Amino acid sequence: MPTALLRPYGLPSQSTFSTMRPARAGPSMRTGVPSCTLRTPAAGSQPVDIRFAIPFKCHFGQHLAVIGGPRQLGQWEAAAALPMTWQQGDVWAASLAWDDGGTLEYKYVVRNDDLTVAGWKPGPNCELQLPTGSPLRAVRVWDTWDGGCQTVELEVPEAGTSKPALRRPKGSLGVLSKETLVALQRLAGALEAGEAAAAAADPGSPEALRADAELASATQHALAMMRAEEALGRLPRRGKARNGRGRGRGAV
């Protein structure tokens, strides 16, 4: 029944679909904990499934959570924030049943096992504006830790259909897909540079070591972007993660 239309952040508006953008910092923001204005849900409104995804590497024993003003997001209390689940490629995911068609302000927080705060996503809060007065089934939100890539997909009913179907407007490539292509191009370039460095220099030379480091970084980046596409449903899943119990690996 629903059909999703993708409108990446930064593209001109064509309808009543939402954009995602950083919220302006208000005077009540302190130590990274933002303020939020809640709206009363419309009578008879149906909950919307909001699905968050963000790539990030945590230290062992830490995990990500989504925090915000609504009760489901902990009302800005870090210990009560919505926990996220780790997936292969260091992508974290969480879902929220949201029954307000207005504005949702939130932020990502790094928590320790005892639910204390280890860190916050840098920059201002994220603000998700949902259309009011129009049917909406689900929202898929993709964020990046540095705020450089923000994508929102909406699933809305389409007359004459009986099953959900995701599609994009013609001629639109989404920010996430563009970044994925860039990551793959970077990986291809790193492979060529690594082969050239290995053939022209000693394996222990600074040039070869730099090429190896770039290849490792490009591989990890490309894998993270592909896993993010998978988490958002644009790629078929390859199976369950073996080590996906809400714990990441690597350094913050």
UniProtKB/TrEMBL annotation:
This is CBM20 domain-containing protein. It comes from Auxenochlorella protothecoides. GO terms for cellular component: membrane. Residues 230-252 are annotated as: Disordered. Residues 235-252 have a biased composition (Basic residues). Residues 42-147 form the CBM20 domain. One of its GO terms (molecular function) is starch binding. Pfam families: CBM_20 (PF00686).
